[in-house]
Amino acid sequence: MTAFTPTSSPDLPPVPTVEPEPAPLHAGVSDRAATQQAREQQVGQRPGTLTIREGSLVPRLFLISYSDSFFQESEYRNYDDLLAYFQANPQLKHWIDVRGYNDLGLLQRLMQDFRIHALHMEDVLGDYQRAKVDVFDDNRLFLVSRMTDFTSLLEIDDDQLSLVTGPNFVISFQDDYEDCLDSVRNRLRSGFSLIRHKSPVYLAYALTDVVLDHYYPTMAAIGDYIEVLEDRIFNGRPNRHLLSRILQIKKDIVRFRRLVYPEREKIAEILRMPDNVVSEEIKVYFKDCYDHAIQAMDLAESYRESISSLMDLFLSDQSNRMNEVMKVLTIISSIFIPLSFVVGLYGMNFQRENPDGTVNHLNMPELYEPWGYPALLGLLALIVCGQLVYFYRKGWLTNR
Amino acid sequence: MTAFTPTSSPDLPPVPTVEPEPAPLHAGVSDRAATQQAREQQVGQRPGTLTIREGSLVPRLFLISYSDSFFQESEYRNYDDLLAYFQANPQLKHWIDVRGYNDLGLLQRLMQDFRIHALHMEDVLGDYQRAKVDVFDDNRLFLVSRMTDFTSLLEIDDDQLSLVTGPNFVISFQDDYEDCLDSVRNRLRSGFSLIRHKSPVYLAYALTDVVLDHYYPTMAAIGDYIEVLEDRIFNGRPNRHLLSRILQIKKDIVRFRRLVYPEREKIAEILRMPDNVVSEEIKVYFKDCYDHAIQAMDLAESYRESISSLMDLFLSDQSNRMNEVMKVLTIISSIFIPLSFVVGLYGMNFQRENPDGTVNHLNMPELYEPWGYPALLGLLALIVCGQLVYFYRKGWLTNR
Amino acid sequence: MTAFTPTSSPDLPPVPTVEPEPAPLHAGVSDRAATQQAREQQVGQRPGTLTIREGSLVPRLFLISYSDSFFQESEYRNYDDLLAYFQANPQLKHWIDVRGYNDLGLLQRLMQDFRIHALHMEDVLGDYQRAKVDVFDDNRLFLVSRMTDFTSLLEIDDDQLSLVTGPNFVISFQDDYEDCLDSVRNRLRSGFSLIRHKSPVYLAYALTDVVLDHYYPTMAAIGDYIEVLEDRIFNGRPNRHLLSRILQIKKDIVRFRRLVYPEREKIAEILRMPDNVVSEEIKVYFKDCYDHAIQAMDLAESYRESISSLMDLFLSDQSNRMNEVMKVLTIISSIFIPLSFVVGLYGMNFQRENPDGTVNHLNMPELYEPWGYPALLGLLALIVCGQLVYFYRKGWLTNR
Amino acid sequence: MTAFTPTSSPDLPPVPTVEPEPAPLHAGVSDRAATQQAREQQVGQRPGTLTIREGSLVPRLFLISYSDSFFQESEYRNYDDLLAYFQANPQLKHWIDVRGYNDLGLLQRLMQDFRIHALHMEDVLGDYQRAKVDVFDDNRLFLVSRMTDFTSLLEIDDDQLSLVTGPNFVISFQDDYEDCLDSVRNRLRSGFSLIRHKSPVYLAYALTDVVLDHYYPTMAAIGDYIEVLEDRIFNGRPNRHLLSRILQIKKDIVRFRRLVYPEREKIAEILRMPDNVVSEEIKVYFKDCYDHAIQAMDLAESYRESISSLMDLFLSDQSNRMNEVMKVLTIISSIFIPLSFVVGLYGMNFQRENPDGTVNHLNMPELYEPWGYPALLGLLALIVCGQLVYFYRKGWLTNR
Amino acid sequence: MTAFTPTSSPDLPPVPTVEPEPAPLHAGVSDRAATQQAREQQVGQRPGTLTIREGSLVPRLFLISYSDSFFQESEYRNYDDLLAYFQANPQLKHWIDVRGYNDLGLLQRLMQDFRIHALHMEDVLGDYQRAKVDVFDDNRLFLVSRMTDFTSLLEIDDDQLSLVTGPNFVISFQDDYEDCLDSVRNRLRSGFSLIRHKSPVYLAYALTDVVLDHYYPTMAAIGDYIEVLEDRIFNGRPNRHLLSRILQIKKDIVRFRRLVYPEREKIAEILRMPDNVVSEEIKVYFKDCYDHAIQAMDLAESYRESISSLMDLFLSDQSNRMNEVMKVLTIISSIFIPLSFVVGLYGMNFQRENPDGTVNHLNMPELYEPWGYPALLGLLALIVCGQLVYFYRKGWLTNR
User: Fold this and answer.
1) What subunits touch chain D, counting only 3 or more CB pairs under 8 A?
2) pLDDT (tens digit, 9 = 90+) per residue, B264-319?
3) What residue range is the signal peptide (chains A, B, C, D, E) (predicted)?
4) Which of A306, D143, D301, D304 is the most buried (most CB within 10 A)?
């Protein structure tokens, strides 16, 4: 295929630099991110309608142009300048890096100039699109990856990275100025990278791979937190707060699996593509990617098991604590209730004197014995000792 | 294929406007909608038998006729007029919109005039048909979609939309005057829509897509309710009412999955159809639909997990509350039962005087000491303090 | 293939009319029907051995002969007469309806005359055979369906219907005089039925379909009972009897799924058969059957979920009742145990008089105050009020 | 293929008749048979190494030679005699029945003479091999089946039966003198059996089938025991012993599934084999076998559900009993604790006489009323009645 | 393919012998090994980057050279010597055994000299790679196996063994001086082994097989420990320590399945490879391997069930113990609380004398009866007996 020539290039207004922050999602057991996703789905619009979501960033345009021996990197405030440079250098490979969606006109021009399908552009701008790959124009790729982050709110935050490849370029779209792609940029700058020597699909691979690599720190953060929770269970007290943390992490792991699974599917689909779309040489690298995706799934499964074990521990602890409370009650009651009976017995007022004045030797003679009180104290001590021995044998006095 | 010509067109009686309301289903844990579905299944009838269900609406007929440059929309009280217009305008594309089934003769004429298979017509009228697609007459489609709604009774209500395509028309059947298809009608009216320029299969796609789009608000409503339930659990008290709400939402999510899963299957089947039935160009749009269906499944899975976490929280809370009750009982009993024993001890009537009148110094001498009572009060205070320290250390006095 | 001519026709003895009743299975949690099935499996016999199970009915023979314009229906007490009529009318289509297996000779003659495979005949007579389809003699079908019934013992009762097709006949076997096939017979009698105009395979379809249709009333009965159980849980008291009912229904649903799943498999296999066995025209009808089977599976899944929700409700209720018991105990104990201590305190016998006759003002002076008793009663009332306020705030006094 | 001629035939030592008994496995919840299997796995040996397991029986050799019209059955104490007879009668079909493995030399000669693959011979001798089938030498089969037994220890015992087919023989290997194959021997002896007329593969089928048939009595025994457990739960008391029985049976069912599943796989693989290995005619019989295997799986699933229901009943019972204990405690405590307070109240020693000798009418005047004691008794009776009514209304006094 | 000639061979520095020990992982419920794996994943590096992990061993190089009739085994301190010998003897087969990774230069030279793909070398050095197989250079294999060990910390420890095959050599990589491959070395030394006569792929098979064989002792150790836990539950007391052990073993089994499953996949992939990569003759051996892998999976499933049964037993025990505590409390309270009431009754101070000095016969006349006290004692004894009978009948006095 010959070099690709965009069809138009009008002037663009200057780009402001205000960066609206998305409100942090409340972290809880219910999947509020999912609900938000459901709520923001546009209903009944004609397919391919482009809508800028509220809170989108003003776009910044970066262009990295490179070949085996050439490298140039710059931010353009004006789309036409970028386009002009791109058109003037068909012999170079270009990475057009669009960050921020808040300019519908710009996006429509990009769509036209680089012949991106309207449905793909809708996926770029939409709230949520699972990882996927589409082939269009016979051998161009549209790729969606999801970049994850484990936030301080114990949520998995995920942002979308969309890639469009062409004969001598890759366009990347994201609605964030900060990203996890700097390692790829550095490899390009260094000059030693294979990216410089290979086709743009290899750059798309490198970007996909780096996103996938970032799943591991996310998982490691979750794993660390699971260990924290385990320590809490072993040392502290089970309470609802702890349980809700456990369930929150469980939710995150489920969410993570929902992110990784389509990623794996995507790469498997790439591996099945014909050679004219993705060459065998590059598939070797995607195969490596595939292994990573499977291992990330494995990790998520392991964590799922860990969380389920934590739940079991938590519930067993809850039950144990009830047991402990009951044992205290039982020991105290069992010891003192009989004693109370005995002392109550000798608090009765049966009269020693019969109405006729004679002594009634049947009515509580113990009360009139000189040794009555000491003997009773001895009896009480005996009862207490007997019970203590019984409870000790049951193992209730030792710490479980 | 050439334009399609219906074969007959008798007069139809005028259409009354009474709209019987279906009795609201009782909302509960058991799936009464499923039981109703099982109960209404017609047993042993010959296939293709058409039966009007009780409570069906009197049909209203709408015709939208359009081409690239033409648009006309009208309600016909007389089927023959509609048919006449349809037959007179084979160059236009037509959307025949039938709302209400309560006229067997009309439906049979539609069946004949537009050559609809008897089994398909039975599916249209039947109580419940999963989403599905059939090809008939080589390249015509019969499509069933289910339109969902989340009612104030916390039930998912679903109505059936059946579509039949032909060379220059789409017939839609539903037993409701209100529907969720207005956005498609508006797009047609606006003139900018692709529907005006493409084949009737595209209109069928647009209708399928808008139904699928409406799954998202349903899910969002469920998601919102899950958050309400979560707040209730965290703030209020766990009771059976709350549990039955949780289980009801769980039932809804299960029901939703049963609705979406066949929808996905249906679209996957369309994507596998040969080009002469659904062209590649339109499959691109159905592919987009397919992504939406998968994401709706994903959402349902997320909510399933959330509900399961809510269940865990609920049960743990129930257990916690029992624990709290037990702790109160244990603390009160453990403090006062020993105290009662002590005071009972000094309520005994052991006699200080021996029968011979001498003083028995063994029998409860404490009672005769001037400091007896204050010392005892001190002892009691000591016991109470000891116990409070013990319980404090156990953490039973603090709020869990 | 040309018309089918049986090879022999000896006389048969007259048929008695005694109908032995199978002993009702005990309804319980364990699957006694499955155990009976395991127990009755014949071990180590050569394949194709025919054995009449104990309690089988004396066979009754019915013949329905029909064509587009002809219909005749009669019961034959003599197999030879039936065979003679059958052989004399090769231009007609015949439904030979065998009810009752208790005549090995008859069955062997049927096997020979209509060339049924010995293994199929063993399946007919065996205790239990999953729904299945086999092709033999290139284009003849052997079909097994299971007819379900929901008995008053809350059991799913299922009887086997075996069908053998031939060029101009269908033989049906069942070990019951009553069945659910009357609607098919009525359709045949009416003359309007498609069965009259189509091949015997269509009759086999109609019989299969009517059996499948009867799954719905069975499911509806189960659904109704689930609602009864739900009401019991909400209104009555949870007890073991109720739990065992829930588990029994769960067992039924599992059993139902085991019945429907092979039915679906069977029809899917028919849909994959080549045209010379089952023609495309008839497959359209089996496709409809297939939809019904899938929807029956869906229903079973819904009920499974409902039963699982009922279990959750039941267990939560059990726990709630314990909670309620504990709360009563705790409230009563917490109020009266401290009161008992206080009154015990003033039941002590500390002496106001010192041994030397002087008044000891330290020993329980309250007892000698004129306002002592009223003050104490006030104190007790205060304690009670304090506790009631505490419990009210905890929400223990209100109905949960 | 021509008749098969073994290559050598040396003399064999006489066979002793001592039969060592394998020590009975301890029956419990953990799967000790699995652990034993893991422990006995030979690690790091070269593949095809033959090792005689400890406790193996001294081999006994049986030869059944047959044709359509001929039958001869004998035990050989000398392998060479057997071989000589076998080689001298290539026109007959032979079943060489080897019982006991404790003679490595013999087994190696068998391996050589009948060209058995070393890996297959290793499978014969190994401790545990799942059911499987291998084709070797283009059209010979190596089959492994597992013969089950339900022991008095509530364990499923399984022994291995290995079969090797050849052009005119089947060799069966087992390490037991008793087996479940006698029905096949009897069918051979009777002369009516199809086995006499068909190829050795049919004999292999018959042996496989009879082993599979024996799964049913095993399942029936388990089913019977489940009913026993159910009765215990309904009549007796839940205790740990009962629970461990339930779990033991659950283990058996899981084990049974692990046995049957590969059996099904094995037969499915046979059904997929080309005609030159297993002819269509014999596949019809294996198809029947396949149905049996699936039905055995179905049975196991049913039992799994039953066991899970028993667990639910058991746990609910355990909870119910706790509830009952608590109710007794609560009723007794709630009735007597307030009464004790009241009587304690009137045991107080407030003085009627003021220090100045006047009567203090405020201090417990009730004690001085003539009707004091009867009134109090009435009050107590009233309290008791009130409580009984309360508890009766709660349903605590009736039997749940 | 002709013999393989490495391309370069510079001198290597002498090898030190310090062996750093990896810190033992803390054994617990959470999967710390998984977290460590996630943490060590290198993010954003260019694919094929080789990094030596901290704590890697200094490499030791072993060379075993063999043919049908020749065997030589030696450790080389200098890579060039090894390479020289290898290059000088193309007619021999070689096993180059690299143990320890702590020399990047050496590994890079191996990579170059034996044409190993950079991505494979990265897999060798990486922290964790699932079992896998890759074909490269048309017919060379890259194999990863995981060697397991059950440590005294109740953890499954797994080390990686990577194999690279070539026309006349196998290179094995591991980061451990000790391994489980000695049995293969011994078989090679013995001279009888098939390895000596077959291609290097057979050696790769033998190494894979011996690793797989070692899964069985690991499983047996786990099985033994499960039996220990079962005994603990039956004899000792349930406590959290025991529960955490159960969960730990569960984690190990899950981990084991994660190890074995890819192993099975790997071998299945080998079995599907074309003949020019792995010959049919060797596939027979891999088929045997495959059976072992499936049986190891079966074992893991069995243990999973056992662990789940242990959990059920544990939880039921926990509940039982609570029940026992409650019974003791209930028995003691139920007996003594009514007794206390009775004796409290007769401790009341109702006055026998009316204010006017007459005797009040209504106020507690029992106190003045000569038989009052003995009668009361009799009453108390009666109450106690009645309660004991009641509790005995309930079965609360016997040991459950």
Assistant:
1) C, E
2) 999 999 999 999 999 998 999 999 999 999 999 999 999 999 999 898 888 888 88
3) none
4) A306
The predicted structure's pLDDT at residue D238: 65
> B119: which chain C residues are within 8 Å (Cβ-Cβ)?
284-285, 288
- Residue E66: strand pairing partners: E71, E93
Q: Which two tokens stand for residue B366?
A: 């404490």
The answer to whether E313 contacts D132, with C-beta atoms less than 8 Å apart, is no
The CATH number of residue A296's host domain is: 1.20.58.340
Tally of CB atoms within 10 A around A317: 18
- The residue with greater pLDDT, C163 or C371, is C163
Do residues B219 and B308 share a domain? yes
Tokens of E169: 């050599």
What is the rounded CA–CA span in Å between residue E354 and residue A145?
Answer: 98
Task: Clarify whether residues E268 and E292 are in a common domain.
Answer: yes
Within a domain: A362 = yes
- pLDDT tens-place string over residues E331-341: 888 888 888 88
Q: Do C222 and C313 have their domain in common?
A: yes
pLDDT in tens, D295-349: 999 999 999 999 998 988 888 888 888 888 888 888 888 888 888 888 888 887 7
Is residue B369 domain-shared with residue B300, that is, in the same domain? no
Whether A136 is in a domain gets the answer: no
Chains A and B form CB pairs within 8 A to the count of 208
Of D188, D161, D23, D145, give the one whose Cα is nearest residue D99. Answer: D161
Chains that touch E (3 or more CB pairs under 8 A): A, D
Element (H, E) at A177: none
Token pair listed for C210: 């009517």
Domain assignment of residue B385, yes or no:
yes
3-state secondary structure of B8: coil
How close does chain A come to B203, measured CA to CA in Å?
A: 11
Chain C residue whose CA is closest to D300: C34
Q: Which residues of D touch E225 (CB under 8 A)?
A: none
Which residue in E309, E330, E348 is closest to D251 by CB distance?
E309
Contact B303 A29 (CB under 8 A): no
Chains that touch B (3 or more CB pairs under 8 A): A, C
* Closest partner CB to A316 (pick from E28, E240, E333): E240
For residue A243, the chain B residues in CB contact (below 8 A) are 312-313, 316
Do A311 and A360 belong together in one domain? no
Q: What is the pLDDT of residues A48-80, one digit of tens each?
A: 788 888 888 999 999 999 998 899 999 999 999
For residues B264 and B333, membership in a common domain is answered with no
Residues near E163 by beta carbon (within 8 Å), at least 6 away in sequence: E141, E142, E143, E144, E145, E170, E171, E172, E173, E204, E207, E208
Which residue, of C264, C292, C322, is where some domain finishes? C322
Token pair listed for A48:
């391919």
Distance CA B114, CA D182 (A): 69
Buried/exposed B6-40: b ≥16 CB within 10 Å, e otherwise: beebeebeebeeeeeeeeeeebbbbbbbbbebbbe
D229 and D299 inside one domain: yes
Tell me the C-alpha distance between D244 and D30, whole Å: 10
Q: Looking at the structure, do residues A241 and A338 belong to the same domain, yes or no?
A: no
pLDDT greater than 80 at residue C1? no
**ipTM field:** 0.79
For residue C370, which residues of chain D lie inside 8 Å, CB to CB? Answer: 354, 360, 362-363
Tens digit of pLDDT for each residue in C311-325?
Answer: 888 888 888 888 888
Q: Is residue D360 part of a domain?
A: yes
Domain count, chain C: 2
Which residues span the domain enclosing C342?
323-394
Out of A288, A322, A356, a domain closes at A322
Asked if residue C90 lies in contact with residue C5, where contact means CB atoms within 8 angstroms, the answer is yes
Using alpha carbons, select from A178, A172, A169, A171 the residue that is nearest to residue A57.
A178
